[in-house]
Protein backbone atom coordinates (compact mmCIF):
# COMPACT_ATOMS: atom_id res chain seq x y z
CA UNK A 1 0.00 0.00 0.00
CA UNK A 2 2.51 2.60 1.12
CA UNK A 3 5.03 1.67 -1.55
CA UNK A 4 2.40 1.70 -4.26
CA UNK A 5 1.66 5.31 -3.41
CA UNK A 6 5.37 6.12 -3.46
CA UNK A 7 6.00 4.46 -6.80
CA UNK A 8 2.90 5.94 -8.42
CA UNK A 9 3.97 9.38 -7.26
CA UNK A 10 7.49 8.75 -8.53
CA UNK A 11 6.23 7.51 -11.88
CA UNK A 12 3.95 10.48 -12.39
CA UNK A 13 6.69 12.86 -11.30
CA UNK A 14 9.01 11.35 -13.87
CA UNK A 15 6.31 11.66 -16.51
CA UNK A 16 5.73 15.27 -15.58
CA UNK A 17 9.44 15.96 -15.84
CA UNK A 18 9.90 14.09 -19.10
CA UNK A 19 6.90 15.75 -20.69
CA UNK A 20 7.55 19.36 -19.74
CA UNK A 21 8.51 21.52 -22.68
CA UNK A 22 12.24 22.08 -22.61
CA UNK A 23 13.87 25.44 -22.11
CA UNK A 24 16.80 26.07 -24.44
CA UNK A 25 20.11 25.52 -22.72
CA UNK A 26 18.65 23.85 -19.61
CA UNK A 27 17.08 20.56 -20.69
CA UNK A 28 18.57 18.24 -23.29
CA UNK A 29 16.30 17.33 -26.18
CA UNK A 30 16.74 13.60 -25.47
CA UNK A 31 15.28 14.11 -21.99
CA UNK A 32 12.10 15.80 -23.15
CA UNK A 33 8.78 15.00 -24.76
CA UNK A 34 6.94 18.08 -25.97
CA UNK A 35 4.52 19.17 -28.65
CA UNK A 36 7.51 19.89 -30.88
CA UNK A 37 9.47 16.77 -29.91
CA UNK A 38 7.23 13.66 -29.74
CA UNK A 39 8.57 10.24 -28.84
CA UNK A 40 8.45 7.88 -31.82
CA UNK A 41 8.87 4.13 -32.25
CA UNK A 42 11.69 2.65 -30.16
CA UNK A 43 12.89 6.02 -28.85
CA UNK A 44 13.07 6.53 -25.08
CA UNK A 45 13.66 9.38 -22.67
CA UNK A 46 15.78 9.11 -19.53
CA UNK A 47 15.27 11.09 -16.33
CA UNK A 48 17.84 13.69 -15.28
CA UNK A 49 19.68 11.43 -12.84
CA UNK A 50 19.45 8.44 -15.18
CA UNK A 51 17.31 6.48 -12.72
CA UNK A 52 14.17 5.99 -14.85
CA UNK A 53 13.50 5.42 -18.52
CA UNK A 54 10.25 5.94 -20.43
CA UNK A 55 9.32 4.30 -23.70
CA UNK A 56 7.48 1.44 -25.38
CA UNK A 57 8.10 -2.16 -24.40
CA UNK A 58 6.73 -5.60 -25.25
CA UNK A 59 6.51 -8.23 -22.47
CA UNK A 60 7.96 -11.58 -23.51
CA UNK A 61 6.95 -12.64 -27.00
CA UNK A 62 3.41 -11.28 -26.70
CA UNK A 63 3.59 -9.00 -29.75
CA UNK A 64 1.76 -6.32 -27.73
CA UNK A 65 3.39 -2.97 -27.01
CA UNK A 66 2.85 -0.73 -24.00
CA UNK A 67 3.97 2.67 -22.79
CA UNK A 68 5.92 2.18 -19.59
CA UNK A 69 8.52 3.42 -17.12
CA UNK A 70 11.30 1.14 -15.90
CA UNK A 71 14.52 1.42 -13.91
CA UNK A 72 17.32 2.55 -16.20
CA UNK A 73 20.17 0.77 -14.42
CA UNK A 74 18.42 -2.39 -13.21
CA UNK A 75 18.95 -5.34 -15.58
CA UNK A 76 15.89 -7.09 -16.96
CA UNK A 77 13.74 -3.99 -17.60
CA UNK A 78 11.75 -3.96 -14.36
CA UNK A 79 8.63 -2.01 -15.37
CA UNK A 80 7.09 0.06 -12.57
CA UNK A 81 4.34 1.88 -14.49
CA UNK A 82 2.21 1.03 -17.53
CA UNK A 83 0.01 3.47 -19.44
CA UNK A 84 -2.11 1.73 -22.07
CA UNK A 85 -2.71 -1.43 -20.07
CA UNK A 86 -6.16 -2.04 -21.51
CA UNK A 87 -5.38 -1.07 -25.10
CA UNK A 88 -1.97 -2.35 -26.29
CA UNK A 89 -0.38 -1.38 -29.59
CA UNK A 90 0.13 -3.95 -32.32
CA UNK A 91 3.28 -2.26 -33.63
CA UNK A 92 5.76 0.46 -32.69
CA UNK A 93 6.39 1.50 -36.29
CA UNK A 94 3.66 4.14 -36.30
CA UNK A 95 3.55 4.76 -32.55
CA UNK A 96 3.98 8.28 -31.24
CA UNK A 97 3.89 9.73 -27.72
CA UNK A 98 3.14 13.42 -27.89
CA UNK A 99 1.83 16.36 -25.90
CA UNK A 100 -1.62 17.42 -27.07
CA UNK A 101 -1.76 20.97 -28.38
CA UNK A 102 -5.39 21.18 -27.25
CA UNK A 103 -5.18 20.40 -23.54
CA UNK A 104 -1.51 19.65 -22.77
CA UNK A 105 -2.14 16.01 -21.87
CA UNK A 106 0.10 13.16 -22.95
CA UNK A 107 -1.30 11.12 -25.83
CA UNK A 108 -0.15 7.79 -27.20
CA UNK A 109 -1.11 7.43 -30.86
CA UNK A 110 -0.78 4.26 -32.91
CA UNK A 111 -2.38 1.09 -34.20
CA UNK A 112 -4.14 -0.79 -31.42
CA UNK A 113 -4.92 -4.50 -31.61
CA UNK A 114 -8.62 -3.64 -31.77
CA UNK A 115 -8.42 -1.09 -34.59
CA UNK A 116 -6.90 -1.02 -38.07
CA UNK A 117 -6.57 2.76 -38.15
CA UNK A 118 -4.35 5.20 -36.30
CA UNK A 119 -5.88 6.70 -33.19
CA UNK A 120 -5.32 7.75 -29.58
CA UNK A 121 -4.95 4.55 -27.55
CA UNK A 122 -4.10 6.23 -24.24
CA UNK A 123 -4.30 9.70 -22.71
CA UNK A 124 -2.92 10.85 -19.37
CA UNK A 125 -6.12 12.65 -18.36
CA UNK A 126 -8.14 9.42 -18.70
CA UNK A 127 -5.58 7.09 -17.17
CA UNK A 128 -6.31 5.13 -14.00
CA UNK A 129 -3.08 3.13 -14.22
CA UNK A 130 -1.26 2.38 -10.99
CA UNK A 131 1.97 0.62 -10.28
CA UNK A 132 0.73 -1.87 -7.73
CA UNK A 133 -2.28 -3.14 -9.68
CA UNK A 134 -2.01 -6.81 -10.61
CA UNK A 135 -2.04 -8.35 -14.04
CA UNK A 136 -3.63 -11.57 -15.33
CA UNK A 137 -0.16 -13.06 -15.88
CA UNK A 138 3.54 -12.26 -15.75
CA UNK A 139 3.58 -11.25 -19.44
CA UNK A 140 0.23 -9.47 -19.51
CA UNK A 141 0.06 -5.93 -18.03
CA UNK A 142 -3.73 -5.75 -18.48
CA UNK A 143 -5.68 -4.99 -15.27
CA UNK A 144 -6.30 -8.05 -13.12
CA UNK A 145 -8.92 -9.02 -10.54
CA UNK A 146 -7.28 -7.35 -7.52
CA UNK A 147 -7.18 -3.65 -6.63
CA UNK A 148 -5.66 -1.61 -3.81
CA UNK A 149 -7.94 0.90 -2.07
CA UNK A 150 -8.29 2.89 1.12
CA UNK A 151 -11.19 1.98 3.42
CA UNK A 152 -14.25 3.81 2.12
CA UNK A 153 -15.81 3.70 5.60
CA UNK A 154 -13.31 6.27 6.83
CA UNK A 155 -10.73 4.24 8.78
CA UNK A 156 -6.98 4.34 8.14
CA UNK A 157 -6.99 0.80 6.73
CA UNK A 158 -6.01 -0.21 3.22
CA UNK A 159 -7.79 -3.09 1.51
CA UNK A 160 -7.06 -5.35 -1.39
CA UNK A 161 -10.31 -6.05 -3.18
CA UNK A 162 -11.10 -9.00 -5.43
CA UNK A 163 -13.29 -8.25 -8.42
CA UNK A 164 -13.72 -4.66 -7.27
CA UNK A 165 -15.87 -5.33 -4.21
CA UNK A 166 -14.92 -8.36 -2.15
CA UNK A 167 -12.33 -7.77 0.59
CA UNK A 168 -9.31 -10.02 0.17
CA UNK A 169 -6.69 -8.60 2.55
CA UNK A 170 -6.58 -5.71 5.01
CA UNK A 171 -3.64 -3.77 6.42
CA UNK A 172 -5.19 -3.05 9.80
CA UNK A 173 -5.46 0.49 11.14
CA UNK A 174 -2.53 2.87 11.46
CA UNK A 175 -0.85 2.48 14.87
CA UNK A 176 1.39 5.52 14.77
CA UNK A 177 4.42 3.71 13.31
CA UNK A 178 2.95 1.14 10.96
CA UNK A 179 -0.28 -0.73 10.22
CA UNK A 180 -1.69 -3.21 12.72
CA UNK A 181 -1.45 -6.21 10.39
CA UNK A 182 2.07 -5.33 9.26
CA UNK A 183 4.02 -5.13 12.55
CA UNK A 184 7.21 -6.28 10.82
CA UNK A 185 7.21 -3.06 8.81
CA UNK A 186 8.29 -1.12 11.92
CA UNK A 187 11.91 -2.31 11.63
CA UNK A 188 11.94 -1.16 8.00
CA UNK A 189 11.83 2.42 9.26
CA UNK A 190 15.62 2.33 9.00
CA UNK A 191 15.08 2.26 5.21
CA UNK A 192 12.22 4.72 4.88
CA UNK A 193 10.15 7.18 6.86
CA UNK A 194 6.43 6.50 6.75
CA UNK A 195 3.76 8.85 8.08
CA UNK A 196 -0.01 8.87 7.97
CA UNK A 197 -2.07 12.07 8.26
CA UNK A 198 -5.85 12.16 8.47
CA UNK A 199 -7.98 15.31 8.30
CA UNK A 200 -11.66 15.94 7.51
CA UNK A 201 -10.57 16.83 3.96
CA UNK A 202 -8.17 13.99 3.14
CA UNK A 203 -6.19 10.96 4.28
CA UNK A 204 -2.53 10.90 3.25
CA UNK A 205 0.17 8.25 3.58
CA UNK A 206 3.71 9.44 2.88
CA UNK A 207 6.60 7.08 2.24
CA UNK A 208 10.07 8.64 1.83
CA UNK A 209 13.35 6.77 1.39
CA UNK A 210 16.23 8.00 3.52
CA UNK A 211 18.73 7.25 0.76
CA UNK A 212 17.82 8.36 -2.76
CA UNK A 213 20.10 5.66 -4.14
CA UNK A 214 17.87 2.97 -2.61
CA UNK A 215 15.53 1.22 -5.01
CA UNK A 216 12.45 -0.63 -3.80
CA UNK A 217 9.15 -1.66 -5.31
CA UNK A 218 5.81 -3.17 -4.37
CA UNK A 219 4.14 -5.72 -6.63
CA UNK A 220 0.53 -6.91 -6.34
CA UNK A 221 0.42 -9.88 -8.70
CA UNK A 222 -2.48 -11.57 -10.46
CA UNK A 223 -2.90 -14.11 -7.62
CA UNK A 224 -3.49 -11.39 -4.99
CA UNK A 225 -0.02 -11.82 -3.48
CA UNK A 226 1.80 -8.62 -2.53
CA UNK A 227 5.60 -8.59 -2.48
CA UNK A 228 7.91 -5.76 -1.44
CA UNK A 229 11.44 -5.88 -2.87
CA UNK A 230 14.71 -4.07 -2.20
CA UNK A 231 17.34 -3.90 -4.95
CA UNK A 232 20.76 -5.19 -3.87
CA UNK A 233 23.23 -3.48 -6.19
CA UNK A 234 26.18 -5.59 -5.01
CA UNK A 235 24.62 -8.92 -5.95
CA UNK A 236 22.43 -7.42 -8.71
CA UNK A 237 19.19 -8.99 -7.50
CA UNK A 238 15.87 -8.14 -5.87
CA UNK A 239 15.59 -9.13 -2.20
CA UNK A 240 12.10 -9.89 -0.85
CA UNK A 241 11.61 -7.99 2.43
CA UNK A 242 7.86 -8.31 2.97
CA UNK A 243 4.86 -10.13 1.54
CA UNK A 244 1.15 -10.55 2.25
CA UNK A 245 -0.81 -12.63 2.74
CA UNK A 246 1.84 -14.94 4.18
CA UNK A 247 -0.49 -17.80 5.15
CA UNK A 248 -3.98 -18.75 3.92
CA UNK A 249 -5.60 -17.51 7.14
CA UNK A 250 -4.37 -13.97 6.36
CA UNK A 251 -6.97 -13.83 3.59
CA UNK A 252 -9.98 -11.81 4.72
CA UNK A 253 -12.94 -14.05 5.69
CA UNK A 254 -11.32 -17.06 4.01
CA UNK A 255 -13.65 -19.48 5.78
CA UNK A 256 -16.77 -17.35 5.52
CA UNK A 257 -19.10 -16.24 8.29
CA UNK A 258 -18.61 -18.21 11.55
CA UNK A 259 -15.86 -20.36 9.98
CA UNK A 260 -12.63 -21.02 11.87
CA UNK A 261 -9.29 -20.78 10.05
CA UNK A 262 -6.40 -22.80 11.47
CA UNK A 263 -3.22 -22.58 9.42
CA UNK A 264 -1.82 -25.67 11.14
CA UNK A 265 -4.56 -27.84 9.67
CA UNK A 266 -5.31 -28.98 6.14
CA UNK A 267 -7.70 -27.86 4.94
CA UNK A 268 -7.42 -24.75 7.13
CA UNK A 269 -11.17 -24.04 7.31
CA UNK A 270 -13.17 -25.76 10.03
CA UNK A 271 -16.63 -25.37 11.51
CA UNK A 272 -17.07 -24.53 15.19
CA UNK A 273 -18.99 -27.03 17.34
CA UNK A 274 -22.66 -27.00 16.48
CA UNK A 275 -22.11 -25.71 12.93
CA UNK A 276 -21.80 -27.35 9.52
CA UNK A 277 -20.81 -26.09 6.04
CA UNK A 278 -23.63 -24.17 4.43
CA UNK A 279 -22.79 -25.91 1.14
CA UNK A 280 -20.97 -29.24 1.54
CA UNK A 281 -20.14 -29.39 -2.18
CA UNK A 282 -18.46 -25.98 -2.17
CA UNK A 283 -16.33 -26.90 0.84
CA UNK A 284 -15.30 -30.07 -0.93
CA UNK A 285 -14.11 -27.92 -3.82
CA UNK A 286 -12.18 -25.64 -1.40
CA UNK A 287 -14.72 -22.83 -1.80
CA UNK A 288 -14.88 -21.96 1.90
CA UNK A 289 -16.40 -18.49 1.66
CA UNK A 290 -19.91 -19.96 1.46
CA UNK A 291 -19.79 -19.86 5.27
CA UNK A 292 -21.25 -22.27 7.79
CA UNK A 293 -24.69 -22.64 9.28
CA UNK A 294 -25.86 -23.60 12.73
CA UNK A 295 -26.97 -27.18 13.27
CA UNK A 296 -30.26 -27.49 15.10
CA UNK A 297 -30.07 -29.47 18.31
CA UNK A 298 -33.23 -30.79 19.96
CA UNK A 299 -32.35 -29.85 23.51
CA UNK A 300 -34.89 -27.39 24.94
CA UNK A 301 -33.99 -24.92 22.22
CA UNK A 302 -36.21 -22.24 20.77
CA UNK A 303 -37.26 -18.90 22.25
CA UNK A 304 -34.49 -17.31 20.19
CA UNK A 305 -31.81 -19.63 21.59
CA UNK A 306 -30.29 -22.93 20.54
CA UNK A 307 -27.95 -25.13 22.49
CA UNK A 308 -24.78 -26.63 21.02
CA UNK A 309 -22.10 -28.76 22.62
CA UNK A 310 -19.92 -25.69 23.14
CA UNK A 311 -22.64 -24.02 25.22
CA UNK A 312 -22.74 -26.69 27.93
CA UNK A 313 -21.39 -25.12 31.10
CA UNK A 314 -18.63 -26.94 32.93
CA UNK A 315 -20.02 -29.51 35.43
CA UNK A 316 -23.55 -28.81 34.16
CA UNK A 317 -23.67 -31.09 31.09
CA UNK A 318 -27.46 -31.49 31.08
CA UNK A 319 -28.44 -27.88 31.72
CA UNK A 320 -29.48 -25.41 29.05
CA UNK A 321 -27.14 -22.57 29.99
CA UNK A 322 -29.34 -19.52 29.11
CA UNK A 323 -32.11 -20.88 31.37
CA UNK A 324 -29.76 -21.54 34.26
CA UNK A 325 -27.94 -18.21 33.86
CA UNK A 326 -31.20 -16.25 33.60
CA UNK A 327 -32.38 -17.70 36.88
CA UNK A 328 -29.13 -16.85 38.67
CA UNK A 329 -29.10 -13.27 37.36
CA UNK A 330 -32.76 -12.81 38.32
CA UNK A 331 -31.85 -13.94 41.84
CA UNK A 332 -29.01 -11.42 41.98
CA UNK A 333 -26.33 -14.14 42.01
CA UNK A 334 -24.31 -12.82 39.06
CA UNK A 335 -21.07 -14.37 40.38
CA UNK A 336 -22.48 -17.83 39.66
CA UNK A 337 -22.47 -17.27 35.88
CA UNK A 338 -18.73 -16.64 35.76
CA UNK A 339 -16.71 -19.33 34.01
CA UNK A 340 -15.47 -21.72 36.72
CA UNK A 341 -12.12 -21.90 34.95
CA UNK A 342 -11.47 -18.37 36.23
CA UNK A 343 -11.37 -19.83 39.77
CA UNK A 344 -13.10 -16.76 41.19
CA UNK A 345 -10.60 -14.29 39.70
CA UNK A 346 -13.27 -11.96 38.39
CA UNK A 347 -14.51 -8.51 39.32
CA UNK A 348 -18.10 -8.77 40.53
CA UNK A 349 -18.65 -5.14 39.55
CA UNK A 350 -17.54 -5.77 35.97
CA UNK A 351 -19.55 -8.99 35.84
CA UNK A 352 -22.69 -7.24 37.04
CA UNK A 353 -22.12 -4.48 34.48
CA UNK A 354 -21.74 -7.07 31.71
CA UNK A 355 -24.97 -8.78 32.76
CA UNK A 356 -26.84 -5.48 32.74
CA UNK A 357 -25.48 -4.61 29.29
CA UNK A 358 -26.46 -8.06 28.02
CA UNK A 359 -29.95 -7.55 29.41
CA UNK A 360 -30.23 -4.19 27.67
CA UNK A 361 -29.18 -5.83 24.37
CA UNK A 362 -32.18 -8.21 24.42
CA UNK A 363 -34.86 -5.66 25.31
CA UNK A 364 -38.25 -6.34 23.75
CA UNK A 365 -38.31 -3.00 21.92
CA UNK A 366 -35.51 -2.48 19.42
CA UNK A 367 -35.43 1.24 20.20
CA UNK A 368 -34.51 0.41 23.82
CA UNK A 369 -31.42 -1.59 22.82
CA UNK A 370 -28.03 0.19 22.89
CA UNK A 371 -25.85 0.81 19.87
CA UNK A 372 -22.51 -0.96 19.62
CA UNK A 373 -20.74 2.27 20.59
CA UNK A 374 -22.92 2.51 23.71
CA UNK A 375 -22.21 -1.15 24.52
CA UNK A 376 -18.46 -0.52 24.38
CA UNK A 377 -18.74 2.60 26.53
CA UNK A 378 -20.84 0.72 29.07
CA UNK A 379 -18.48 -2.26 29.26
CA UNK A 380 -15.48 0.07 29.65
CA UNK A 381 -17.23 1.93 32.48
CA UNK A 382 -17.33 5.23 30.58
CA UNK A 383 -21.07 5.50 31.17
CA UNK A 384 -23.16 4.17 34.04
CA UNK A 385 -25.47 1.24 33.41
CA UNK A 386 -28.57 1.14 35.58
CA UNK A 387 -30.69 -1.98 36.03
CA UNK A 388 -32.81 -2.53 32.92
CA UNK A 389 -36.38 -3.80 32.86
CA UNK A 390 -36.52 -7.58 32.60
CA UNK A 391 -37.30 -8.55 28.98
CA UNK A 392 -40.15 -10.98 28.36
CA UNK A 393 -37.69 -13.44 26.80
CA UNK A 394 -35.63 -13.50 29.99
CA UNK A 395 -38.76 -13.84 32.13
CA UNK A 396 -39.84 -16.80 30.02
CA UNK A 397 -36.43 -18.47 30.28
CA UNK A 398 -36.45 -17.99 34.04
CA UNK A 399 -39.86 -19.63 34.28
CA UNK A 400 -38.41 -22.71 32.51
CA UNK A 401 -36.05 -23.32 35.39
From TrEMBL:
Quote the EC number: 2.7.11.1
Catalysed reaction per UniProt? L-threonyl-[protein] + ATP = O-phospho-L-threonyl-[protein] + ADP + H(+); L-seryl-[protein] + ATP = O-phospho-L-seryl-[protein] + ADP + H(+)
Q: This protein's superkingdom?
A: Eukaryota
Recorded GO MF terms: protein serine/threonine kinase activity
Q: What is its main location?
A: membrane
Pfam families, sorted: S_locus_glycop (PF00954)
Keyword Nuclease applies: no
Q: For this chain's UniProt record, which GO biological process terms are given?
A: response to other organism
Could you tell me which InterPro entries the record lists for this protein? Bulb-type_lectin_dom, Bulb-type_lectin_dom_sf, S_locus_glycoprot_dom
Q: How does it sit in the membrane?
A: Single-pass type I membrane protein
Annotated ranges, domain Bulb-type lectin: 30-161
* PROSITE patterns referenced in this protein's UniProt entry, alphabetically: BULB_LECTIN
| Keyword hit for Disulfide bond | yes
Identify which top EC class this enzyme belongs to.
transferase
Entry's Gene Ontology cellular component terms: membrane
Q: Where is the signal peptide?
A: 1-21
The record's subcellular locations are: Membrane
Query: What keywords are annotated for this sequence in UniProt?
Result: Disulfide bond, Receptor, Signal
> Which protein are we looking at?
non-specific serine/threonine protein kinase
Taxonomic lineage: Eukaryota, Viridiplantae, Streptophyta, Embryophyta, Tracheophyta
Amino acid sequence: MSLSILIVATALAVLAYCCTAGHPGTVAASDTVSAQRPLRGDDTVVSAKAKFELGLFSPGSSGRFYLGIWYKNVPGKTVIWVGNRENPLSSVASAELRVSTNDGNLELVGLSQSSASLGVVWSSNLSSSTVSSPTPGSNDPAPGMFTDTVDHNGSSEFFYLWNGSRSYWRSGVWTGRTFANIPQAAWQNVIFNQTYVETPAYRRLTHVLYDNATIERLVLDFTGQTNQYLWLAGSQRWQLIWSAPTVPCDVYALCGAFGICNQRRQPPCQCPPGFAPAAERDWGLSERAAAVRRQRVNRRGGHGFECTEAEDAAQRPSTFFPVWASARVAEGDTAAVADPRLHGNVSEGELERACRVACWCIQDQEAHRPTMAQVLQALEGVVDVYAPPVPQTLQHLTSLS
